[in-house]
Specification:
This protein has 2 domains: about 15-265, P-loop containing nucleotide triphosphate hydrolases (Rossmann fold, 3-Layer(aba) Sandwich), CATH 3.40.50.300; about 285-480, Nucleotidyltransferase, domain 5 (2-Layer Sandwich). About 30% of the residues lie in helices and about 15% in strands. It has 17 helices and 20 strands. The strands form 3 sheets. A 10-stranded mixed β-sheet has the order 3-4-5-2-6-7-1-10-8-9, with helices on both faces. Strands 11, 12, 13, 14, 17, 18, 19 and 20 form an 8-stranded mixed β-sheet that branches. Strand 13 (about 320-325) and strand 14 (about 330-335) form a beta hairpin. Helix 1 (about 15-20) packs across helix 2 (about 40-45), helix 2 packs across helix 4 (about 75-80) and helix 14 (about 415-430) crosses helix 16 (about 465-480). Residues about 485-510 have low confidence and may be disordered.
């Protein structure tokens, strides 16, 4: 709307947008569908705090092109702020990209492409943090941003994240217990409902009130504002954005014309839907069976890592393994039979863990003894001299204790998709089976299948790993390409042979 000084004061254009702009929760997640005006609302929300000269706001996109490109959030902000009444219009600088308002309040725009870029804001304080398309960020980055929520402004610091649904992101886990229904759609009557949480050992502890959490966990009054935070989720779709509906009817037609899976995600905000064709594998392709046939050739494939979670890297890759057998008829069988210690201690999921190299190698050896000598151990080789030396030493150690290590037959410099596709193709054609009863628990089975389901060829991230993907491709390709003959020793005392005839007569067999 316009004012007497010739400027335009931006405001909401629907009841849902008004709910979003007026939200005061310290952590607010908005959106959940395409075309809902999320980027616009973020820029407008920051204006609530610029009446205090001590206010410092910052807006993030993952990369600079997303930030500065035509139609990006900087363009959106400029179109809003340059139309403000003259007394409120900011001055602009390019490096850093910042708007400074007449009273001294500032809004800055910045990228955070790499996880390490989170330290670019170390020691800084903000009244308002806006994150556009939060699901494109690693959870570790978003978590670090919350530590910057303090400033000298009279306004309470808060963080607002806009997003489209991502079934693999940590935000889905946070939302699904309260704000989403069993099918993954937002529950309308819970939009804007404020909940409270605190963190303990990296886990979220939730409560309906701050008093409940303070009483239950003994939080002192002076620590409430820093230890207990308020949270809300407000869903919105293109139908909550009248301007978009009026000016871009073709975009609505495009969304309505999508296939059912994409439409559920982008038009209606479904957090469980996965875009059709975005991945290379479907768990439905695996036929569930009760056992592995006798005489099958067995191997276990590894993807190795050598780091534990730390302050520098909260979500390192896992050492993961996949056990697989190939029967004489050419079918492949996935099993999940692991020793008790071969698991991620934080989650209780078997088949992967995050440990240093020494502990890792000990666990691989222990698992090898459990699997037996007939189960070959297939390991990838990293490129370069260091990779050759590492696998050589690993093979020496395993061979010395009577196990049979094998080198991955597919070069590690091959694209992950290229390496994974033979397995995915075999599964799609009904050649791969899974013995679900061999997995230690349902959580381990679900974690394994979910990782394969989610693999889209993109690089591993903090919330979407591909360690099992690599291990599965490694063992499948080995079983496909190797030529191993399994010999079954006969019991000479029970089989009719010349040697047995002599032994039955208490004679010593002679050569020749």
């Amino acid at each position: 709307m316009s004012d007497k000084k010739g400027g335009v004061i931006p405001g909401p254009t629907s009841a849902k947008q008004e709910m979003i702009i007026n939200s005061d929760a310290q952590i607010t997640v908005i959106g959940g569908a395409a075309g809902s005006g999320k980027s616009y609302l973020l820029q407008v929300m920051a204006l609530r705090y610029i009446d205090d000269p001590n206010t410092t706001c910052i807006m993030f996109r993952r990369t600079t092109p997303q930030l500065m490109g035509q139609g990006g959030i900087v363009d959106t902000a400029k179109s809003i702020y340059t139309a403000l009444p003259k007394d409120y219009r900011p001055s602009w600088t390019q490096k850093p990209m910042q708007a400074t308002f007449p009273n001294g309040a500032t809004i800055r725009w910045q990228h955070m492409e790499h996880v390490r870029n989170k330290f670019d804001i170390q020691g800084l304080q903000y009244t308002f943090i806006g994150v556009d398309e939060a699901c494109q960020f690693e959870w570790e980055q978003l978590e670090y941003m919350t530590s910057r929520l303090r400033s000298a402004s009279r306004h309470k610091s808060r963080m607002v994240m806009s997003c489209n649904p991502d079934p693999d992101h940590k935000l889905r886990e946070i939302l699904e217990d309260f704000y989403l229904d069993e099918d993954g759609y937002p529950i309308p009557e819970r939009d804007g409902v404020v909940r409270y949480f605190m963190m303990q050992n990296g886990d979220f502890i939730w409560g309906d009130t701050a008093d409940y959490l303070a009483d239950k966990y003994g939080v002192a009054d002076e620590d409430r504002d820093t230890k207990i935070l308020s949270f809300t989720f407000i869903s919105s779709t293109i139908y909550d954005n009248p301007i978009m509906l009026k000016e871009n009817r073709e975009y609505l037609a495009f969304l309505e014309g999508l296939n059912e899976v994409d439409k559920a995600q982008l038009l209606h905000g479904n957090w469980f839907a996965r875009a059709e064709g975005s991945t290379f594998f479907k768990r439905e392709w695996l036929e569930a069976v009760d056992y592995v046939p006798d005489g099958a050739q067995e191997a276990v494939g590894y993807d190795k890592a050598a780091s534990k979670p730390s302050q520098a890297d909260r979500s390192p890759d896992y050492t993961a393994c996949t056990k697989m057998s190939k029967c004489r008829e050419g079918y492949y069988y996935i099993t999940g039979d692991y020793i008790e210690s071969f698991k991620d201690e934080d989650t209780g999921i078997y088949g992967r863990f995050r440990e240093t190299a020494g502990r890792r190698d000990n666990l691989i050896e222990a698992q090898g003894h459990y699997d037996g000598r007939d189960c070959h151990i297939v390991m990838p080789q990293d490129p370069g001299a260091a990779g050759k030396m590492e696998i050589l030493e690993s093979c020496k150690k395993l061979t010395a204790v009577g196990l049979i290590p094998k080198k991955d037959l597919i070069p590690i410099n091959k694209a992950k998709v290229t390496k994974f596709m033979p397995f995915a193709t075999a599964a799609e054609n009904g050649l791969v089976r899974i013995v679900k009863s061999t997995f230690k628990n349902a959580k381990s089975l679900e974690a394994y299948l979910k990782e394969l389901d989610s693999f889209d060829g993109e690089r591993s991230t903090a919330h979407k790993k591909d360690d099992w993907v690599d291990a599965t491709a490694t063992v499948f390709n080995y079983l496909t390409l190797s030529r191993t003959y399994k010999f079954t020793p006969r019991n000479q005392a029970k089989v009719k042979t010349l040697a047995n005839d002599h032994l039955s007569n208490n004679e010593v067999p002679r050569r020749g």
